[in-house]
Amino acid sequence: MKRHLDGDGFQLELETHRNHLRAYVHGGDDSLQVSLSYWMLLAEACKQFGKRRLLVVEDLTPWHASEEDFQRLVEAMRRSGLDQVQVAYTSLQTPIDVNEMGVIVGMEQGMWTRLFSNERDAALWLGVGSPPDGKR
């Protein structure tokens, strides 16, 4: 099933697969507000479709997030329940090292997120891993 959502400053294409939800985020410039908005929509979609694995392909103009920005984003993601979801993330525009701080902050706070340089590797990781049971 495919679903299209227009966010504030971005577009989101959702596609359900047997074992995961694929999200393509595009059509704008990334920022803390845009990231907060689309991650909250993704948390809602994971709950709605009963998915505990999420593949995110982001195609937004990059922004330079600070460690504080990543802290705020990860805190919001945890409150939304995304700490119970295995998240594979790849960006089509942002070099992988730019988002490493976000993954480090997330790991420190119990998130199960990994960065990938391409969608194929991200999807393979989702197929091999197991979603967390209960609180991590």
Short description:
The protein is α/β, with parallel strands linked by helices. It has helices at residues 32-49, 67-79, 100-108, 119-128, and strands spanning 2-7, 10-16, 21-29, 53-61, 86-91, 112-116. The longest helix is centred in the first third of the chain and has 18 residues, at 32-49.
Q: Note the main sheet.
A: 6 strands, mixed
Order of helices and strands: EEEHEHEHEH
What's the arrangement of strands in the largest beta sheet? 1-2-3-4-5-6
Please estimate the helix content. Answer: 25-40%
Beta-strand content estimate: 25-35%
**Stretches with pLDDT under 50, minimum 5 residues:** none
Structural class: alpha/beta
Average residue-wise pLDDT:
90
Number of helices: 4
Q: What value does the Rg take, in angstroms?
A: 13 Å
N-end to C-end Cα span: 30 Å
Inertia-based shape:
globular
Q: Give the strand tally.
A: 6
Describe the protein.
The structure is a single chain. The protein is an alpha/beta fold. It contains four helices and six strands. It has helices at 32-49, 67-79, 100-108, 119-128, and strands at residues 2-7, 10-16, 21-29, 53-61, 86-91, 112-116. Strands 1-2-3-4-5-6 form a six-stranded mixed beta sheet, sandwiched between helices. A hairpin with a 2-residue loop joins strand 1 and strand 2 (10-16).
